[in-house]
Design a protein that fits this description.
Layout lengths: L2 H14 L1 H36 L8 E5 L7 E2 H9 L1 H4 L1 E7 L1 E6 L14 E5 L13 E5 L7 E5 H7 L6 E6 L7 E10 L8 E5 L1 H7 L5 E2 L1 E6 L5 H12 L1 H4 L7 E5 H48 L1 H9 L4 H40 L11 H28 L2 H6 L11 H23 L2 H38 L4 H13 L1 H39 L4 E4 L8 H7 L4 E14 L2 E10 L10 E4 L7 E5 H7 L6 E5 L5 E10 L8 E3 L1 H7 L7 E9 L5 H12 L6 E3 L1 H44 L1 H9 L4 H37 L12 H27 L3 H6 L1
């Protein structure tokens, strides 16, 4: 039979079954829409940031900054050296910048929250005098001309509810300075001020004083003299400042870049973040598409089964097997194109909504960027997924002999054809269990690889074995749940196990999403339990003072130490250093005895650090081959080498980190006060002092520091576990896509099943089954299948999640927790999902007219 004729048959078949077409297309739409949304959203944000960064360092030919991000900056001696050799090097203009982390108080006196965006204090330079104005301009008020006057970017001023003339407080995030009172004298328009970014600019002399200008500058911006190119100036400066590195004898101390390189580096940084975001969104879109493949496969299997007689008739009048196969695939192609096109439109809409939200959070938007990549990715993914899903049903349709098909009622391969796939599934499951055992026996990256391989094998095994499992498991579920519903419940159970392939494919769409939910839930619950246990075991302090996500000035510890009812206070100051060529952080305890505020877990040596002692965790000591008396050399960000001696070993403790050094050694590692910060202060109250009284005194003492928070042990735990809860909630929300598609799959399967069983339903109605009874039958059938899918998801999720947490013990996970509340909610929720998914098919079935259905 000619291809055009078969194409016409396929298109007419689609047109004749519009509801079936809509449901199948919608399964494709949901997955492809997330693909399109991920591509469009990240491309739009990338374009917006590119436009902003095009203005960064626009007037700068060369910039010199510290090679290490955590360094206090470039020594002032380098500035003097460059000024002395200005003519020889070919420098025209030279400008230094002073900056550091700060927090500004809002109108109500609380610290302005940035949502993780930088909050920077710096020196004000008039735009017409600045080498790099970055598009900045003064739009209200005037420039700061005296100490304690500041200008502020407009977006930050709006969030803080500050205007020109407002008096507020600025707290420094490093060094030893106490908060200072300031007056806002002007507002700045800054194109680069996005995503909650805060920039507080001081009068130049005060900025120099506050941010270590007598020792270091943040960066040096220069323009090249006439006749000297930016690359020539860069190479000359690099050769002078990084002579040893250029000669291959050491590491570069300074980063010497052209203005173009500065812009590209900043674009690359945001590009890296957006790439990760894009992959995360695409990963969840892929999960949705995988779930969608089961729905589409199930749908086309049912369609082929329902059209057996029609297809057989086509074979009888001359259609070849390839004609039949291509006919089914053509229907799939149309579904894929429609799903991809609609998914693209929906994806653009989702991206637009995401941009509305992110714009409200301060992120820039330059208009939707719907490129060729978004169009091709959505349509291509939609078409490929649909064609692959329909391939096996299409081949099955072509293999049915014409005469046999004419004798068949709508039928699919029965249980007898499940033996081979079940055996293969069992073998894969055994192999997966073997890999899981190997993962449990090892740790670190090898364990993760083994468990990852096991996950693939076990999930494939479940796909293959699920039809064989569905009959006994769904039957068992039905026997329990049918009791209150008598005959209706029994009939629903019979229907649910009638076609094991269909039930398994429908249920597995729900299973795959719940596997991920349970795995994530197991990791999250274990992590939270571990945090609670660590804090309970190690914290002896009554209160913890921390800055949350922001660093604190060392003056916080000094203020807390002055609280009358505080018996012992210990501040932990931190700085960034290098050990054996690798960047790391080092801390020092300042104040009283550590053992009074925390359990150190000392296993050897003494607690007292002395001037150049070091306490180190057992694991780190073993990794470096250290014992008591071993020597190590830390290198400061300015290149100063500071030797320390191991004086004690403690049990691995995330609260203490890898090592602690003595105060004098730490002082030598932080020659600039701007290089050190306080990250936590532990406080033990005097005997007999109530916690409420001590808290009140502490809150009053740290109130000027804005970011400092006073927390008891439970609040301190919650500050960590709330972060985990937020991450898990985000992941669950993204997994919601897969669950929505799974619900659609149940709706689709039940709706097609109602069409397939129309005569049967008519007969039931004719012999006395009422409409409510028929609806309950469909509801229960859906519930049985949904609970079966949920059980599979929970069992496989635990089988993968528990070994995964065990493998993470290499990174400190030493507690395994089963998320029983989540499992209970999942199983109960699956029953609700079953009812919701069955609402429309049940109503449709109940409306069936008995006589019309019987005579069809």
């Amino acid at each position: 039979m000619r291809t055009p004729v078969m194409a016409k048959v396929s298109l007419r078949s689609l047109a004749a079954h519009k509801i079936r077409l809509i449901l199948t297309v919608f399964s494709v739409v949901l997955g492809t829409s997330f693909v399109a949304a991920a591509v469009v959203f990240t491309a739009t944000v990338q374009s917006s940031f590119d436009n902003i960064f095009d203005n960064v360092a626009r007037g700068v030919d060369v910039q010199v900054s510290a090679a290490q991000a955590q360094s206090p900056g470039v020594p002032v001696e380098v500035v003097d050296q460059l000024r002395e050799q200005r003519g020889q090097l070919g420098i025209d203009k030279l400008q230094v910048d002073f900056s550091g982390p700060v927090t500004i108080a809002t109108a109500d006196g609380s610290g302005l929250q940035t949502g993780g965006a930088p909050s920077i204090g710096s020196s004000y330079i008039p735009p017409d005098q600045a080498v790099d104005a970055a598009g900045m301009k003064l739009v209200a008020g005037r420039a700061p001309t005296a100490p304690f006057e500041v200008v502020l970017n407009q977006s930050a001023a709006q969030k803080a509810q500050l205007t020109v003339g407002s008096k507020t407080v600025v707290a420094l995030g490093t060094g030893t300075s106490r908060p200072i009172g300031v007056t806002v004298v002007g507002l700045l328009d800054m194109p680069a001020a996005t995503g909650g970014f805060v920039n507080v600019q001081f009068e130049r002399a005060q900025a120099e004083q506050l941010f270590g200008g007598d020792e270091f500058v943040s960066a040096i911006d220069m323009t090249a003299a006439p006749g000297v190119s930016d690359t020539q100036l860069r190479d000359r400066l690099d050769a002078m400042l990084n002579a040893e590195a250029v000669a291959g004898k050491g590491e570069a101390l300074y980063q010497v870049r052209t203005g173009e390189q500065v812009r590209e580096d900043q674009k690359d940084q945001i590009g890296t973040v957006l790439t990760v975001l894009r992959y995360v969104l695409l990963a969840f879109a892929a999960i949705g598409l995988i779930v969608g493949t089961f729905i589409i496969y199930n749908t086309f299997s049912m369609i082929v089964a329902q059209r057996n007689r029609e297809l057989a008739l086509l074979r009888a009048i001359g259609a070849s097997r390839p004609n039949i196969s291509r006919s089914v695939l053509l229907e799939a192609l149309v579904v894929g194109i429609l799903g991809g096109a609609i998914g693209l439109g929906l994806g653009v809409g989702i991206a637009a909504l995401m941009l509305v939200y992110t714009s409200g959070q301060g992120l820039p938007s330059a208009g939707l960027q719907v490129g060729v990549g978004a169009v091709l990715s959505a349509v291509f993914v939609g078409v490929i997924v649909t064609l692959l899903s329909a391939w096996f049903p299409a081949q099955r349709a072509a293999r049915v002999p014409p005469v046999e098909a004419m004798r068949m009622s709508s039928a699919e391969p029965g249980a007898g054809s499940l033996r081979t796939r079940t055996i293969i599934g069992g073998l894969l499951a055994l192999a997966g269990i073997g890999l899981l055992a190997g993962g449990v026996a090892t740790q670190g990256v090898p364990a993760l690889l083994l468990i990852g391989g096991a996950a693939v094998l076990i999930i494939v095994a479940v796909v293959l074995a699920a039809p064989a499992l569905s009959q006994p498991v769904v039957g068992g579920i039905g026997r329990v749940l049918q009791i209150p519903f008598a005959t209706v419940g029994k009939l629903a159970r019979t229907n649910a196990i009638r076609n094991p392939r269909r039930s398994a494919a429908t249920a597995f769409a729900l299973t795959i999403g719940l596997i991920l939910v349970v795995v994530i839930g197991t990791i999250g619950a274990s992590f939270k339990t571990m945090i609670d246990a660590e804090i309970d075991q190690n914290l002896r302090a009554d209160f913890v003072v921390s800055g949350g996500q922001a660093p604190m000035s060392s003056a916080v510890g000094e203020a807390v130490a002055q609280v009358p009812d505080a018996q012992t206070t210990v501040s932990f100051d931190m700085a960034f250093v290098t050990l054996d060529g690798e960047r790391t952080a080092v801390s020092t305890p300042v104040g009283g005895a550590m053992s009074e505020v925390m359990n150190i877990g000392l296993v050897d040596g003494v607690e007292q650090l002395g001037p150049d002692g070091m306490l180190v965790s057992e694991k780190i000591a073993a990794d470096h081959g250290w014992t008591l008396g071993s020597r190590a050399v830390f290198v400061s960000t300015t290149g100063v080498e500071v030797p320390v001696t191991v004086t004690g070993l403690f049990v691995d403790n995330p609260a203490l980190g890898d090592w602690l050094v003595g105060n004098q050694a730490f002082d030598r590692l932080t020659p600039s006060q701007a290089a050190r910060m306080t990250f936590v202060v532990l406080v033990k109250g005097k005997p007999g002092v109530s916690e409420s009284a001590l808290r009140e005194q502490l809150e009053e003492a740290v109130k000027p520091f804005l970011t400092a928070q006073v927390q008891d042990s439970q609040q301190f735990k919650n500050s960590f576990t709330s972060i985990i809860d937020s991450i898990m909630a985000t992941l669950y929300a993204l997994l919601g896509l897969a669950l929505v598609i799974a619900i659609l799959g149940i709706i689709n399967t039940l709706a097609l099943s109602v069409v397939e069983r129309r005569q049967e339903i008519g007969m039931l109605r004719a012999i006395g089954m009422s409409r409510p009874q028929l609806r309950r039958t469909i509801y229960l059938e859906s519930v049985y299948i949904a609970i079966f899918g949920a059980l599979l998801g929970v069992i496989v999720g635990l089988a993968l999640g528990l070994p995964l947490v065990h493998a993470l013990r290499h990174w400190g996970f030493d507690v395994i927790t089963v998320p029983w509340p989540l499992i209970g909610i999942t199983l109960a929720g699956s029953a609700v999902v079953g009812v919701v998914a069955a609402l429309w098919p049940a109503v449709s079935a109940a409306r069936t007219k008995p006589l019309e259905a019987i005579t069809e």
